[in-house]
Every structure is written in structure tokens, then in C-alpha cells.
Design a protein that fits this description.
138 residues; Alpha-Beta Plaits; 5-stranded mixed beta sheet; 5 helices; 5 strands; binds flavin mononucleotide
Length: 138
């Protein structure tokens, strides 16, 4: 059973770029081992993450993430069964933007990464987040 979970959270205010790099490095290592794939978007203030994989692995990963003091106010956006991986095969694809990271085309990036999502609600939630964060009209 393949499972997909998305959530949004708020970064601890003192978080710096090297923290994000550390998170990505550890995530890629662990996720590869656990057969978890997904996407992490960070705009300098909020995280948006998608996790995909065997349901037990996704739930255990999310449980660890949820207690991580580097962010707070986690809100689960979706949790659903999927037939195939919809976010590609990255152990953790990423897009960093905002004031700390320098500007990037977050909208275009997220649109491309959500292209094959079968659930229009999840797709619109992620795209809406990207549009909102970038300040472009929705
Ligand atoms: C925004 C955010 C996203 C994270 N994503 C992952 C992830 O995809 N996979 C993962 O194993 N850990 C992720 N982590 C790190 C975990 O919270 C935790 O530090 C890591 O899994 C190591 O756990 P351990 O020290 O118990 O081994 C993330 C942390 C944050 C703050």
C-alpha cells in the first residue's frame, strides 16, 4: 500500500539556511533507506512537504518530523492512498525560496512537480500555497 501525506508548518524563527541544508541531508539519507520519497518547499518562513511511500514508513517519518523543534504548528493537509508515486523518485526533492534563499520561480517549480498528481484538491492546495507565498495572483 502506497501512501501520500502532505502538511504545512512554520519554521522556528531562528532557523537559518544551514539548518535547512541539514534537514535535507538527513532526510535524503533516511528516506532513501525507508523507501520514502517526496518534496520539501521552504519559503523562508513555512515548510510545505509531501511524503510518499509504504504507509508504515510514511507514518513513522511524519511522527519524527512532527516532534522536530525546528518547526511548529504542523497542519496535515492531506493523507491518502495512491497507486503510484506522484512526486517523482527524489528521496526528498526541494525548493528553497524567499529572503534567506534568494528568489526563485517557486510557482513554476511547484506546478511542474505537481503535474502528475491525480487528486485535484491536493494539487490545488500545493499550487495555492506556492502562489500565495510568491505573492502572485491566484
Ligand atoms: C521541515 C522538516 C522536514 C523533515 N523531513 C524529513 C524527512 O522527509 N525524512 C526524515 O527522515 N526526516 C525529516 N526531518 C527530520 C526529522 O525531524 C528528524 O530530525 C530526522 O528524521 C532524524 O531523526 P532521528 O534523530 O530520530 O534519527 C524533517 C525535519 C523538518 C523540520
Amino acid at each position: 500500500m502506497l501512501h501520500q501525506l502532505t502538511y504545512i508548518s512554520t519554521a522556528r524563527p531562528t532557523l537559518i539556511l544551514s539548518d535547512v541544508e541539514q534537514i535535507l541531508q538527513a532526510s535524503r539519507r533516511r528516506n532513501e533507506r525507508d523507501q520514502v520519497t517526496g518534496l520539501l518547499i521552504f519559503d523562508g518562513k513555512r515548510f510545505l512537504q509531501a511524503l510518499e511511500g509504504p504507509i508504515d514508513a510514511v507514518e513513522q517519518t511524519f511522527a519524527r518530523i512532527a516532534t522536530d523543534p525546528r518547526h511548529r504548528a504542523l497542519v496535515k493537509l492531506s493523507s491518502r492512498h495512491v497507486d503510484t508515486r506522484e512526486f517523482g523518485n527524489w528521496s526528498m526533492g526541494s525548493h528553497l525560496t524567499g529572503p534567506v534563499m534568494g528568489k526563485g520561480d517557486v510557482v513554476g517549480h511547484v506546478e511542474a512537480m505537481t503535474e502528475s498528481l491525480t487528486d485535484p484538491n491536493v494539487r490545488e492546495t500545493l499550487r495555492g500555497f506556492a502562489r500565495l507565498r510568491s505573492g502572485s495572483p491566484s
